[in-house]
Amino acid sequence: MNAKYHRVLLKLSGESLAGAQGHGIDSQRLNDYVNQIADVVRSGVEVAIVIGGGNIFRGMQGASKGFDRVKGDQMGMLATTINSLALCSAFESIGQPAKLLTAINMFPIGEQYSNSRAIEAIENGTVAVIAGGTGNPYFTTDTGSALRGIEIRADVMLKGTRIDGVYTADPEKDPTATKFTEITYDEVIRRGLRVMDITATALCRENGLPIVVFDMDTPGNLAKVIAGEPIGTTVY
Q: Can you point out the beta strands (E) in 111-216?
């Protein structure tokens, strides 16, 4: 594959992993994801993954229902670890090496994250699956993704969602919403677009990490994005 990007941080949505059932882990969606990812790894692309936990538990939603915010966010970190374990297991079942790295010590579930461990893994053709967000409450997995992408010196952050890019409004609610092909970090913040939270967007801006938002649920799209085909939206 003629790749535009050699090293990528792939941010996956926990909600997307739920598939049509809307909660938990849909095995078909999980397998679709890992097959797409394994294909690009076999072509020589280095991949690290951060996945959310919203299909299981979201810390902010827990806080709105009476959970202590710190405890709720810690529950969310555990939810991301469950999803990360599912990814690793699915990779191993198809012969693709994967390593689980956790932001907080969870031995023997996974090794504690360090950027050197993640880089060593991806340079050897192993997918580094990084769980637990930043390891701190009050930070989203989007911010964790931005931080990890910067730490491993990724060429790009690929945000795989069920939407095919960034729009002027939510296209699932507003049929008049129009899609951006490219947009700057500053315009995303100024317009209040929900690409990712402001902290994550600012981190990417300050460190020059471009973001590509694309539809991960369509098989083959990941390879197209990595090859530089103009699908999705580039935030720069």
A: 111-112, 127-131, 156-161, 166-167, 179-180, 182-183, 211-215
Helix (H) or strand (E) holding 223: helix 221-226
Q: How confident is the model at residue 66 (pLDDT cuts 50, 70, 90)?
A: confident
**HSE-up (13 A, CA, CB side) for residue 186:** 0
Return mean pLDDT, the chain: 94
Residue with tokens 């964790």: 144
**How confident is the model at residue 62, as a pLDDT?**
63
Say how far apart CA 33 and CA 87 lie, in whole Å.
9
Question: Which residues fall within 8 angstroms of residue 118, CB to CB, at 6 or more apart?
Answer: 48, 101, 128, 130, 148, 151, 152
How does strand 7-12 pair with strand 46-51?
A: parallel
- Is there a contact between 156 and 212 (Cβ–Cβ < 8 Å)? yes
What's the CA gap between 171 and 143, in Å, rounded? 24
Q: Rounded to whole angstroms, how far apart are CA atoms 125 and 130?
A: 15
